[in-house]
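stage 2 :: seqdesign
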């Protein structure tokens, strides 16, 4: 059996966590990632019959029974994942009862998955209904997106429209726009249900005055999606206090979206 520490999905998680910490998106133990893995690939590295222990999920994830995820641990710092993945990450499987997870590897110090894992599972379930290829959910605290929350109306159409105007690529990368929730208490199922509802329409959901949830088919796509939104928010924050001399007009945004063949939110343009 191959060494799990050399598995591509472990390497991807290490690199992604390091990049997110380096960019300042995940300070201290802020942020979390869940990545649904291919069972056959995991079986090359782990004995899938060897369950180390079981952990209550805190949510009925029956539609995901048997699915395997690699998940960041609760209270763990992204900056430590690269040097000690076995302590800061875990590979778990949703058990047959739908409400328990089976630990297959990781959380070496007796820990468990992020407290927001139920919210991740809800978002996975919602996104899989829209896109069967969805495998990743990332929660992070990108600095400029968060700063923008305090100086821009938290209206999905207006927020999206502003971001689309910031970079030519934006309407192509997130043509469905940005979903937004008001400030809510984190770490419980209420915010998870609200996020999942938004995930039927959006791949990026802003948690007001907190951060974002992003979803995609792999770590690269999901990271790049959040990265693009964050870059647009940065440009907005750098220019918001200055006179606007130039902008990308709505007719130009339409031309751009149609040239790239993306299904964009036409109602988000004026």
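stage 2 :: out
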């Amino acid at each position: 059996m191959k060494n799990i520490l050399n598995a591509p999905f472990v390497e991807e998680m290490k690199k992604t966590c390091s990049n997110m910490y380096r960019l300042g998106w995940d300070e201290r133990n802020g942020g979390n990632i869940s990545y649904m893995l291919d069972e056959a690939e995991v079986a090359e590295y782990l004995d899938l019959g060897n369950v180390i222990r079981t952990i209550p999920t805190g949510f009925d994830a029956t539609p995901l029974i048997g699915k395997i995820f690699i998940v960041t641990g609760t209270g763990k710092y992204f900056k430590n994942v690269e040097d000690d993945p076995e302590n800061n990450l875990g590979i778990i499987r949703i058990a047959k009862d739908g409400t328990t997870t089976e630990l297959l590897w990781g959380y070496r110090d007796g820990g468990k998955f992020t407290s927001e894992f139920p919210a991740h599972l809800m978002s996975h379930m919602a996104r899989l209904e829209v896109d069967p290829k969805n495998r990743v959910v990332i929660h992070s605290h990108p600095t400029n997106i968060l700063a923008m929350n305090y100086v821009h109306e938290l209206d999905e159409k207006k927020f999206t429209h502003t971001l689309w105007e910031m970079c030519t690529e934006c309407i192509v990368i997130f043509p469905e726009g940005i979903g937004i929730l008001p400030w809510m208490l984190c770490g419980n199922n209420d915010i998870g249900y609200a996020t999942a509802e938004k995930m039927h329409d959006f791949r990026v959901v802003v948690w007001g005055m907190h951060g974002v949830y992003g979803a995609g088919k792999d770590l690269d796509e999901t990271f790049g999606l959040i990265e693009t939104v964050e870059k647009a928010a940065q440009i907005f924050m750098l220019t918001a206090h200055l006179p606007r001399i130039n902008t990308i007009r709505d007719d130009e945004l339409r031309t751009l979206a149609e040239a790239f063949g993306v299904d964009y939110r036409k109602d988000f343009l004026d």
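stage 3 :: structure notes
- The chain has a mean pLDDT of 96.
- The CA atoms of residues 38 and 218 lie 12 Å apart.
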